[in-house]
Amino acid sequence: MELFELDLFLGFYLLSAFLISWALIDISNNKLKFRKKALFILLIALVPVLGSIIYFQLKRRKILQRNYPINI
Questions:
Q1: Does 69 have pLDDT greater than 70?
Q2: Is 15:22 a contact under the CB 8 Å cutoff?
Q3: pTM above threshold 0.70
Q4: CB neighbours of 40 closer than 8 A, spacing ≥ 6?
Q5: CB of 27 within 8 A of CB of 55?
C-alpha cells in the first residue's frame, strides 16, 4: 500500500511541476501587460497547481472568444 501512495504523490508532484513550468513559460512568452503577468505569476507562486489551472482556463476562454465572437 505504501508503494502505491508513493506513486500517487510522485505523479502529483511531476504533474504539478509540469503545469507550473508550462504556465510560467507561457506567461513569459505571452503579450500580456506587465500587471497581468505579475498577477498570474503571483497566483502561481502562492497556489501553484490551482494557479496554473486558472491561468489555462482563462487563456482558453480568451482564445474561444477571439475565434468565436458572440454576436448579440
A1: no
A2: no
A3: no
A4: 23, 27, 32, 51, 55
A5: yes
Long-range contacts of 12-17, Cβ-Cβ distance < 8 Å, separation of 24 or more: 16/48, 16/49, 16/52
Cell of 47: 497556489
Residue with cell 503577468: 37
Give 37-49 pLDDT, tens digit per residue.
777 778 777 877 7
- Do 23 and 51 contact (CB within 8 A), yes or no? yes
Distances (CA, A) of 13 to 23, 24, 40: 15, 16, 20
Nearest by Cα to 28 from 13, 41, 16: 41
